[in-house]
């Protein structure tokens, strides 16, 4: 039987992409580039990045270490100024951070001295909302991330997954249109991570939000994304934008499915291309000579 490829889409998936493409382009990168000056000289972290993201899409960004994923997230957030090209929201060029974008990072960026509720109220209060309004809004979002019972708890009393849920509530309370997430579940154990992915999809289903999600976990990218932006390193350039053929609604049961496997295979080809051994390469030169650090009397094999 012929192996399925990631380019094959069921009618339902194709119809869904047709609908997505008819939605407004909310975020666009045009020839975006970023070069850092460092002690070792210039580092071209991003080169000529182009993409268009439609309203309520989830785009995951993957690529090898150093391909500029975080730089892209920080540039889109306006925390880093691009060296060339432009970024547009609703077709208008933007420079610098703005209310239209919220960010969730890997580290738990909560204020440890504030309760869950006060952490979430912080943004609205900084934006001039009165205490009662800020508290009401905060409680709505805390409820949405399923933490109402913990509104008065402090971050150190929560698990890693719960803290990231607070971070999501804290980003969403400001009603951004775009949520930028940089490896938000990277520090969580595998089981909590899957729960958080499912939870994020639930939130996305209920909220008018467009998500750009940076990850190095290919399963996570396929599980979450409508499309996956694959970058290559040195310099960070777009390799491919993949339309994920896995149907929605997503469930963990799809992990072993044909569409899932075909997409993963393509991502692996792009990100970890097979290393070709040099012709006439001596096997013994590849296999390192291992030193025994302790005296071992019994064999384990
Ligand atoms: N502030 C900086 N100054 C100089 N070089 C930087 C700076 N930030 C990033 N870089 C360089 O830019 C390139 C892209 O870095 P970036 O952290 O965006 O990649 P990444 O894909 O997120 O990596 P990883 O997957 O390892 O987190 C790297 O070569 C990095 O060393």
UniProtKB/TrEMBL annotation:
<dbReference type="GO" id="GO:0005524">
    <property type="term" value="F:ATP binding"/>
</dbReference>
<dbReference type="InterPro" id="IPR003439">
    <property type="entry name" value="ABC_transporter-like_ATP-bd"/>
</dbReference>
<keyword id="KW-1003">Cell membrane</keyword>
<keyword id="KW-0813">Transport</keyword>
<dbReference type="GO" id="GO:0016887">
    <property type="term" value="F:ATP hydrolysis activity"/>
</dbReference>
<dbReference type="InterPro" id="IPR003593">
    <property type="entry name" value="AAA+_ATPase"/>
</dbReference>
<dbReference type="InterPro" id="IPR027417">
    <property type="entry name" value="P-loop_NTPase"/>
</dbReference>
<protein>
    <submittedName>
        <fullName>ABC transporter related protein</fullName>
    </submittedName>
</protein>
<dbReference type="InterPro" id="IPR050166">
    <property type="entry name" value="ABC_transporter_ATP-bind"/>
</dbReference>
<feature type="domain" description="ABC transporter">
    <location>
        <begin position="27"/>
        <end position="258"/>
    </location>
</feature>
<dbReference type="Pfam" id="PF00005">
    <property type="entry name" value="ABC_tran"/>
</dbReference>
<keyword id="KW-0472">Membrane</keyword>
<dbReference type="InterPro" id="IPR017871">
    <property type="entry name" value="ABC_transporter-like_CS"/>
</dbReference>
<keyword id="KW-0067">ATP-binding</keyword>
<comment type="similarity">
    <text>Belongs to the ABC transporter superfamily.</text>
</comment>
<keyword id="KW-0547">Nucleotide-binding</keyword>
């Amino acid at each position: 039987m012929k192996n399925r490829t990631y380019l094959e889409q069921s009618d339902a998936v194709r119809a869904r992409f047709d609908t997505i493409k008819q939605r407004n382009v909310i975020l666009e990168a045009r020839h975006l580039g970023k070069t850092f000056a460092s002690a070792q000289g210039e580092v071209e972290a991003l080169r000529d990045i182009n993409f268009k993201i439609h309203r309520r899409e989830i785009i995951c960004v993957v690529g090898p270490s150093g391909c500029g994923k975080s730089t892209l997230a920080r540039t889109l957030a306006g925390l880093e100024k691009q060296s060339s090209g432009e970024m547009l929201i609703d077709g208008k060029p933007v420079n610098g951070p703005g209310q239209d974008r919220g960010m969730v990072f890997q580290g738990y960026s909560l204020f440890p001295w504030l309760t869950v509720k006060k952490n979430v109220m912080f943004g609205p209060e900084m934006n001039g909302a009165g205490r009662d309004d800020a508290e009401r809004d905060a409680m709505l979002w805390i409820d949405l991330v399923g933490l109402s019972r913990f509104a008065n708890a402090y971050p150190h009393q929560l698990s890693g997954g719960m803290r990231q849920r607070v971070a999501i509530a804290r980003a969403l309370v400001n009603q951004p249109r775009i949520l930028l997430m940089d490896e938000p579940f990277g520090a969580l154990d595998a089981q909590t991570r899957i729960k958080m992915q499912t939870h994020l999809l639930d939130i996305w289903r209920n909220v008018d939000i467009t998500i750009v999600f940076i990850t190095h976990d290919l399963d996570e990218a396929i599980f979450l994304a409508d499309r996956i932006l694959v970058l290559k390193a040195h310099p960070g350039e777009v390799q491919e934008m993949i339309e994920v053929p896995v149907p929605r609604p997503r469930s963990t049961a799809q992990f072993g499915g044909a569409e899932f496997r075909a997409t993963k295979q393509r991502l692996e080809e792009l990100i970890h291309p097979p290393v070709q051994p040099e012709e006439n390469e001596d096997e013994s030169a590849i296999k390192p000579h291992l030193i025994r650090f302790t005296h071992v009397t019994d064999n384990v094999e």
